[in-house]
Amino acid sequence: MEENRADSFLRLIQRSQRGRLRIYLGYCAGVGKTYQMLLEARRFREQGIDVVVGIVETHGRKETEALLENLDIIPRKTLTYRGIEITEMDIDAIIRRHPAVVMVDELAHTNVPGSRNAKRYQDVEEILAAGIHVVSTLNVQHLESLYETVEQATGVKVKERLPDRVVLQADQLVNVDVATDDLLQRLKEGKVYVVGKAESALTNFFRQENLEQLRELTLREVAAQIDSNRRSPLQEEQASSPDQVMVCLSSRSENSEALLRYASRIAGRLNRNWYAVYVQSLSERPEMIDAGIQRRLSNSLALAQQLGATVFIYKGDDIVSTVLQFAREYRVGHIVVGNSGERLSLLHRLTGKRTMVERLMQESQGITIVVPDIRQPGEERKKLPAVNYLSGIRENLMGRQQPTDDREASIFHANVMIWNEVLEKDVAIRQLLDTICRTHSDVPFDYAWRAILEREKQGATFIGEEIAIPHARLEGIESTVLAVGVSKLGIYDTDSNNTATIMFLMLSPVSRPDSHVKLLGMLSRMAGDSQWRGEMRKAGSEIELMQSLRHWVEGNKKR
């Protein structure tokens, strides 16, 4: 069975001009991920494939060390940190050597300070961008969206984590499984750690209960991918209605990060785009809240982007009305909101006042309001909520398989511009709108301009990661139209003090809200691709811009 999987990956990389990623996923150290990865390296070598070892941690396991014999190993580079010499993977040497495939162990590893990238998965992204295929390893507890789930299951706070998008973008995910009894026996025999360390592991992380829960979590993750791959794109499209997920963020909440991870799991389960929305009231202006709250809010918004959400910031004192207006515009079917613990007195109740959650439930009409229990775990370990088992890796896997549709047509026929100067937001929007109106006679400039400005008043469309997506829905146009501009020096928004380098201007027909939401989802996934953003910034002409746009779409159709 494993040889068939390896052959499948071999056929995949032979057809590809861009680096492909295969991840061996396990539930714990010692299940055999590195061993299986090196077996695959030896099979590739026997078939004449140019394969090298970028970095492997054997942890003194003799069986694993034996598999390294006769494999081409790229020497590590040495860095000095606080007077101590530490070795790391040498990505420059790998790219210069440019093999067909490189083996990279421990994908969630944190590099020593002073390295070019903070995390090893970022090194892997550079290697993939250079057209080199990568086979790597990962334990399930390192997925960012599973942080609270793993802590509740094991009582351990996992420090090394990586964004779920890394797994989302993997071309193949292979479960390396072994019965927990067998793993414990291997640990006692010294096949996982040296004897002294093995005894400590048995009394801490490697308890039977922990291992069984992590194993079940891993099996569910892989099963969700299999389920996604077995669905045909047409079935998925027909079976699902536009029903996006949003999470409401608050500057007052101390559990926003847990709320975001929860929403990420729901979005993965439902195979939907999802949004993180923060409504800034007049009392929450930056100059009126302390630095600690600002820092906590900033960290939450950064985590939302890392988990794959599109982030929007609105201004307004009626939070519920603003949230529901957003939900209607973006076809949201599930709103995830934290329980603030707000309590109303009997007098307030008698005068008709309601909490924010109560108002959402009463005024939402057809939208599911989800209020998860995200309190910190107590001394007694809690059972894992069922939703936390559900896969967060479906959305992009299904999105890769979508047939050519109006989203791709909008991108393939987009107008593009390059600016070699600093622009204010309104100037950039006007220039992009002008290019649209010149090529689409059914788009009146004045009408579209007013609609865009009205949408901008509701909240900034600068979504982070150096991306802005101003947009509006118009009466009288038949299809979604798009213009893309790149400023080498930046596009500045004086109202929000945000800066972008890439701007998408999207206009869609009021009569086709599905088209609006689908294209926005594709643009959000584009925005999350750091390699693609780099290619767009480096583009020297409009032709190169269009090539980068087309390559991303084509590459994600095949993935």
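Second entry:
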Amino acid sequence: MRRTYSPNSLPAPADGQRHDWQTVRNLLPYLWAYKWRVLFALACLIGAKAANVGVPVVFKEIVDAFTAEKPPGQTALVVPLALLAMYGLLRFSMSLFTELRELLFTRVTQQAVRNIALQVFRHLHALSLRFHLERQTGGLTRDIERGTRSIGTLISYTIYSILPTVVEVGLVIGILGARYEASFALITVVALVVYVTFTVLLTNWRTRLRREVNEIDSAANSRAIDSLLNYETVKYFNNEEYEAQRYDRQMQRWESAQVRSQVSLSVLNLGQAAIIAGTVTLIMWRAAVGVAAGAMTVGDIVLVNGLLMQLYIPLNWLGVLYREIRQALTDIERMFVLKAEQREIADAPGAVPLAPGPCAVRFEHVDFGYEARRQILFDVDFSIPAGGTLAVVGHSGSGKSTLARLLFRFYDVQSGAVRVNGRDIRRLTQASLRAAIGIVPQDTVLFNDSIFYNIQYGRPQASREEVIAAAQAAHIHDFVTALPDGYETRVGERGLKLSGGEKQRVAIARALLKNPPILVFDEATSALDSQSEKAIQGELDRISVGRTTLVIAHRLSTVMNADEILVLEGGRIAERGTHRVLLERGGLYAQMWALQQQEEEAEPLPA
């Protein structure tokens, strides 16, 4: 069964820890690609921690050297100077190994973030149209942003903090156990177990609260972006306050969730502080008793205090690090859900590229439905010879635009086949198939960039001269050069700074620049007034000469010159023939023609 992704929900694993380990296993290959850097960095990590723990050991010897009784005539500073030199060397070695580790691991971290982000981005573009129609852009982009950011956080905290802390704890417990009575090491181990257990239990509770905060945050962000993208609709219906109230309801939920999360954080911090304070007090008491009994020197109590300080700082941050790591795993988990989303449409094994040159298209007894319970097309069968023009007309919902989506292979047919030059398009590579098709859609959506960029998007490698030639062929060059910024004029979000006719001409120029053997006009003039429609229709007729053309139209006046016209009714071909033949037949096409003629005659003349 195909997995589906919802940006406001995350599949809840049966075992949260197992799911975290799966996320870690997914990350390891990206790190292991730089295994020698990783191993060298780990060696530097161990060296830095060994030097760090060695500092209080040497300091203990320095203190004992100063406090020990010296034979008459011996210089008291001979031994301490040597130890002081070693003390300074250890301090420097600690910093040297730490910086070497970070220098070595920086490229590993950044390359892993880059590779995963790129793979997710490519995967999202490879997913089906169905996925992108169902998704919510705001929540999706927020999940990707948090996920990529959290990869660096996870790697940084794990390699730079958690692993060094584990090494340091092991070294400290080893020194305490080897030099002093077992109670010192036992107290330390028990305290660590209690501390880690308390931290894990409280953090798991906090993770559920944090997950709720994330879900509410994504929902609020999606709602805000959806509202802003539909800015004009909000204005048309005077619903600014309604939208603000909807957004505020989400933010109220977010506020409550954040407060609960902060309360849990305070409880966790107080508990950790109590465990650390109790441990430090107990061990220092044992050391003081040892010194008072003569079993330990002043240097020993300095060493125990130094080692406790070595543990105190990382233990004090361990809870914070664990929380951040769990949060990072939660965020990365959402991104890996995206990465694991199955591609509904994929190249078949052994798929071959479509050969260049003229293309003939055939829909062969095609049945299709977006959902299993609702079929859209029934036994649709037609051919478009290379260089020919076929038009498809019909009422809204009859399945016209579905034909273009099937030709682009955004979906696969349930039965029958779509063929190009006799080959089932499921046996062709998607890249080569789509490279052979150009489209002028009903709703031309442009990138928020320059006019030049939007035309060049048809063939990004095209030169400036080729872009201008395409604009001239689409009769938009004069309009563009009259603008203050010319071809560098930005078109705004989704091209909103341009009129419908101007956007259509940009779409025509883009299709011309692509220079495909197959053209699809999907209701390309339906949103235009009659004058603009006639002007653009003439351009469409001109650029379709010599190309295999599929025209999907509502206005019958735009398809009169097609080689063949299909009339779709309820997903079935009700009639077929030329314009003249269909009018003479007096069927559905003739009725639609008569109705549209009456509507045009009833339209008031322009003022």
